[in-house]
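Field reference: sequence -> structure
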Amino acid sequence: MLKLVVPALMAFASAVSAPAGGAPPLEMWRLDCGSIKVADLNLFSDTYAYVGREKTLTDSCYLIRHGGEYLLWDTGYPAELAGRSETQGPFTATLKETLAAQLARIGVRPEQITYVGISHRHDDHTGQLPAFPKASLLIGAGDFETLKARKSDRIAPWTSGGGKAVPVTGDKDVFGDGSVVMLDMPGHTESHHSLLVRLPRTGAVLLSGDLYHFAENRQSAGVPSFNTSRSQTMASMARFEAMARNLRAKVIIQHEATDVAKLPAFPQSAQ
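Structure field:
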């Protein structure tokens, strides 16, 4: 039994420990992946907390450079939406500029992206996935299975024998040194993940994925009516908040403009 337990404990420790000295340079850019006007904010509460309210949310993505490798976290709305808006039900989505165009402004080509990490399977986080077919796809295993079952064309490059897909179960230490860790935070979807980034100057940063959607939502621990599991969501929130306290982390709710503004404006990077 001890032979089985010790390797498992060592693997867990490597994922949560601080990055080792002499780690490759690490920096992170915030990217604009669109905005969402929500005409019925009450959809984001299963306790009727926002009846009669509306709100515009941002849709942010992130580029992380680890030495000579790049991780793109989330891909926002589809590139076809660039320069226009589209309304579906209570949601109006807008995209000003594609990810490829933004990356070009800092001299990064799509084929240079080593990994594309997806917090979860929803359209506003997977829209521009097809623009990075050579990257390894990191996505929660449950979410990946749902997308495959729905025959989503977003993941076609990784289901047709092209790019490498890495279905993630639990936490995932992306670069193997504790600097960037996908955190298992299920509940919003089957295998939703948040992201921990330990920057050398800024310190620990926690990117929420869609564990929260806006500041008030976080303050009240509100659960959207469309989440896959209330109990898993609440457990994930408890873990996230404990981690934020223990690491004294800067929390970025990816759909909250005031949180995204805690990071330098593109094309500047956080280091």
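Note: Residues 185 and 235 are 8 Å apart (CA to CA).
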